[in-house]
Structures are given as structure tokens and as C-alpha cells.
Amino acid sequence: MRSKERSELLEKAKTLATSPGVYLMKETAGGILYVGKAKSLRSRVSSYFQPETHEHPRTELMLTNAVDFEIIHTETEKEALVLECTLIKRYKPKFNVRLKDDKHYPYLKIPLNIDFPRIEWTRKVVNEKARYFGPFPS
Fold first, then answer.
1. pLDDT tens digits, one per residue of 4-58
2. Cα angle 9-63-10, degrees, rounded to a multiple of 5
3. In contact, 58 and 95? CB cutoff 8 Å
4. Which of 32, 96, 107, 138 could share a disulfide with 91, CB 3.0–4.6 Å?
5. Within this chain, do residues 11 and 33 fall inside the same structural domain, yes or no?
């Protein structure tokens, strides 16, 4: 993305509401590159178009291909989380690697039926002697 395009998208992002919601980064052909959720749409979407270089190369690559974004407002952060997951499964954006499969969100599991339990990651909560913490969407 050229600096002119980035600055135009930054100006557009600065006009967004500070409410929660979901944003879709779009490429030239209108395809969805990335789906994300935000507690404050203005703050989160604006952060993509700041002049500094992004920490993750995948983010910079995604922004190189992004030409626009779309916003869907939600009432709550929880609603945004559910909508984000639904849209990722529908569109399967190439830059959403964590949630585009049909797996459930991961949980931390601590078995209670052994003397020295260790923390484990799991995607299923089963009714057994264990404590679960989560889910963790990212």
C-alpha cells in the first residue's frame, strides 16, 4: 500500500465510532483479506494505517494488499467476537490463520485427578475432573 492510500484509509478510520464491532480488510477485487474484532473500532482500525512499520510481517503484507475496509457495529464485545468467528468461517480470509478452521477456541486445562497436574491446551471441554480457563480467541 502506498503512503497516499494508507493516509486516506487512516483519515477514513479516524471518522469511525469508538463502539465495538467487526472490521473487514478488503483487497482490490473486493475479496476479504482479514476479519478482526475491536472494542473501539476507531482505535483498532486506525492503528493499521499509522506511518510506523508493523511488528509482524504478515500484517505488513496484508496491508500491502488492502485497499479498503468495511465496518459492522455491534452492541457488545461478545457480540463482536461471535460475529468475527462467523465471518471468518464464511469468508476464510487468507490472513486469518487462527480461527478459520472449524475448531473451537482453545482452553487451558488443569487436570485435578493427578498429584502433579500440568497445564495443557485443549479445544474441547469434556465433563471430567479438570479446571478449564478460557476460551481464548487469539
1. 688 999 999 999 999 999 999 999 888 999 999 999 999 999 999 987 766 777 8
2. 20
3. yes
4. 32
5. yes
Residues 108 and 86 in one domain: no
Domain enclosing residue 17, as ranges: 3-91
Are residues 81 and 20 both part of a single domain?
Answer: yes
Q: Which residues contact 111 (CB under 8 A, 6 or more apart)?
A: 117, 118, 120, 128, 129, 130
- To the nearest 10°, report the CA torsion of 51, 53, 58, 59: -30
Instruction: Tell me the pTM.
Output: 0.69
Q: What is the pLDDT of residues 86-101, one digit of tens each?
A: 999 899 999 987 655 5
Distance CA 35, CA 7 (A): 21
CA distance 64 to 31: 14
Mean pLDDT over each residue of the chain, to the nearest integer: 88
Domain count, the chain: 2
Q: Please check whether residues 111 and 85 belong to one and the same domain.
A: no
